[in-house]
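Box S1 | Example of a co-folding query
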Amino acid sequence: MQLIPCPWCGPREEAEFHYGGQAHVAYPSDPSALSDEEWAQYVFFRDNPSGPFAERWSHSAGCRRWFNAVRDTRTHDLLAVYRVGEPMPEVAS
Amino acid sequence: MTAELVSPLAAWTSRLPSTVSERPFLSQLTVRSSDTAAMGSVLGVAFPSRPCTFTEGSGRFGDVSVLWLGPDEYLVVAEPGLQVPIEEGLRACKGSVVDTSAQRTTLVLEGPHVRDVLAHGCSVDLHPAAAPVGTCVQTLLARTGIILQVTGADTFTLLVRSSFAEYLAAWLCDASVEYGLLGETPVTGRPQGHR
Ligand SMILES: [Zn+2]
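Box S1 (continued) | Returned holo structure for zinc ion
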């Protein structure tokens, strides 16, 4: 089973984690000003790159903290993990 | 009128592996706070400063352990019956303190095969080089969420949710068979006398 490095707990097996989708999707600053199309964009539309992708993960069976990870969608390699609030690290693609 | 306390593993006492024993009813308080220095001085034990560790100390509430659960989250563990005085003692400090004593029961595992038994269902590296005394991890054991403390060279303390305790006891019996740690009583089905 793949090990995922939690930024707090270190490497743990994949089964301890839950996936949270794309990272850095900012909540609209003025939601009521959005058109239906813009709201749909915010709620439903996500990037789908072939390569490095910044995602949210939760260490749900461990420290129960959310963190961010850059995962290569082609290889499932986790290229970097970083805590919430930290900037996305540079990764070689 | 107070209800009689029955521990989650009361019916398992004679059936557990010889190296496993329950320590029921420990006082447990979930603490979320950034003011851990003040809380530490109330309890007489410094809060853990590193993730996945625990600390021990002694003070006006007797022997107290503080387990790291998250960046601002801890579990304070003390002898049975102290949850109310500890909560009152911590009330002056900033943060939240919640009595979670009934949420989990505690098992003590010991002996030279303890790591072998745990390795049947736990993926965390428990070699002393990777998990020295003082380590405290939240992880899965046989798909059950646990808190595991390394308390001695071959001694572990395991906290498990009360509703999962019987399942985990049965699993521990099964995992212990090949090391000859089970008594004479064969483990078949649920023990009699369970409510
Ligand atoms: Zn973690």
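Chain B touches chain A through 14 residues (CB under 8 Å). Residues 12-24+103-179 of chain B form a domain with the Gyrase A; domain 2 fold (CATH 3.30.1360.120).
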